Amino acid sequence: MPDMKLFAGNATPELARKIADRLYIKLGDADVGRFSDGEISVQINENVRGSDVFIIQSTCAPTNDNLMELIVMVDALRRASAGRITAVIPYFGYARQDRRVRSARVPITAKVVADFLSSVGVDRVLTVDLHAEQIQGFFDVPVDNVFGSPVILEHMKQQSWDSPVMVSPDIGGVVRARAMAKLMNDADLAIIDKRRPKANESQVMHIIGDVNGRDCVMVDDMIDTGGTLCKAAEALKKNGAKRVFAYATHPVFSGNAYENLKNSVIDQVVVTDSIPLSEQMKSLDKVTQLTLSGMLSEALRRVSNEESISAMFEY
Known about the structure:
- With 315 residues, the protein is an alpha/beta fold.
- The chain contains nine helices and 14 strands.
- The chain folds into two domains: 4-146, Rossmann fold; 149-291, Rossmann fold (3-Layer(aba) Sandwich), CATH 3.40.50.
- Strands 10-9-8-11-12-13-14 form a seven-stranded mixed beta sheet, with helices on both faces. Strands 1-4-5-6-7 form a five-stranded parallel beta sheet, sandwiched between helices. A two-stranded antiparallel sheet has the order 2-3.
- The model has no long low-confidence stretch (mean pLDDT 94).
């Protein structure tokens, strides 16, 4: 079996270190920086010829910089004769641009990114909770879309909730919320029906399900500005919810996210480290960050050993 090597860009260095520690290997020696004019500079400082190489790099903000770092690292490793290159992208940026909506004159940027990665020499992609699962079909190489649910579920089961009800913040998240409800001893399900006037803005309409006097647990794949969750939490409280918790895999936290969450009626927000938290977000007591390192390290081990990934998620 080829030697397993792990490299990291500048997007998620702490997560990469945790994964390396769990695999009992050192992060690969690479210089990933910038030239004086801002162009990305990459140099691989160790032999990777014939190795099974994994690059850990979320394409979170600054999205374009982190994406280009990943692209240039792949090219450097390919030219250094790496045996196989797997791009480990815990958070896949541009995933929300997966279709043409309303107008034909818009790009499908998720497909552009997939083509970019495939053409530069990536052999395999491993990501977590893709916003749109059909993006897997945009690639010309195998894609493993693993789930953050085991990490989130473990935290949920440690909580002491009063008659919990799983809540989907919109119609599109019903499948996710229903799955979590089933794993939480067949908890009840509620759905928030909302209207979205324009991007990053949402208006809660009404709640489908009984939340009166109960702890409500909202589940989603990501939190962006937090506007959706905060308005949903207000609606839940107005309908008698005792406490409101929010779980999401990806803490995008853009725009007014800090102010929105700080001033919201949400009691606790739980996210993972697919994206690093800013110091400002870390200062919010109601925000808790879980690590994906255990789940990802096992997934990488299985990929390297040609073992099943899906077996990790058989409950």
